[in-house]
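Narrative of accomplishments. A recurring question from our advisory board has been how the design workflow behaves on a single, concrete structure rather than in aggregate. To address it, we present the structure tokens for one chain from the evaluation set, followed by the sequence designed for it. No filtering or post-editing was applied between the two.
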């Protein structure tokens, strides 16, 4: 029996909750290709262009724009309409005159926020892994699939790195801790910006608890839902 090819479609009812769409209007939507993000933490580039930004009305138009090399994600040209795009990625369309950053709305769904020319030059990634290599160097792993190798660094898991675009170079480390500015990436507070007031130690099977304050009130959430941005 011949080997079955990769499934390109995805039923709307089964689409990840981070995808902002009307689930009962049509049966199918685009499936993200395996890439820098997990499937439930990303949206395909074609969906961004057609459904979020609206620069294209149909998938036929999306394919034409991508084939002409007009679309960049984090400063790199992308031609795959199923390329996975995630939190804080910068999407630019040559000749369109606008740039967008992928962020959460207050329901925890991705949306495209228009940004200026200065903002499009950087991207923030969260450190989710750290280890020492055989050569004695430090290897950092980020939420967007990056592997950053450094001679030495004080950065730790939970911190963030600001990446310079399009050279993909680490510009600075943003430390996780009291006083840091954070972005909430999960739970009922998703999409909010807040200041870290306190970090409470967890237990063996329980994560650290973070006390934060936004413009209105104080609230608690777990460390994995906190993304340091400043």
């Amino acid at each position: 029996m011949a080997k079955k090819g990769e499934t390109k479609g995805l039923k709307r009812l089964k689409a990840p909750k981070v995808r902002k769409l009307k689930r009962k209007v049509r049966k199918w939507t685009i499936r993200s290709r395996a890439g820098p993000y997990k499937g439930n933490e990303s949206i395909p580039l074609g969906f961004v262009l057609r459904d979020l930004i609206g620069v294209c009305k149909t998938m036929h138009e999306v394919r034409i724009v991508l084939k002409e090399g007009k679309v960049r994600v984090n400063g790199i040209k992308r031609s795959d309409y199923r390329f996975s795009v995630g939190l804080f990625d910068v999407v630019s369309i040559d000749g369109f005159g606008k740039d967008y950053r992928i962020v959460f709305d207050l329901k925890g769904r991705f949306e495209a926020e228009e940004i200026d020319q200065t903002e499009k030059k950087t991207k923030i990634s969260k450190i989710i892994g750290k280890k020492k290599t055989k050569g004695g160097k430090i290897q950092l792993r980020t939420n967007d699939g990056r592997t950053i190798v450094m001679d030495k660094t004080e950065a730790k898991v939970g911190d963030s790195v600001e990446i310079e675009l399009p050279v993909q170079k680490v510009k600075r480390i943003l430390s996780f801790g009291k006083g840091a500015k954070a972005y909430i990436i999960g739970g009922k507070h998703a999409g909010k910006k807040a200041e870290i007031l306190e970090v409470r130690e967890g237990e063996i099977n329980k994560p650290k608890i973070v006390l934060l304050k936004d413009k209105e009130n104080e609230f608690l959430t777990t460390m994995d839902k906190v993304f340091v941005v400043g």
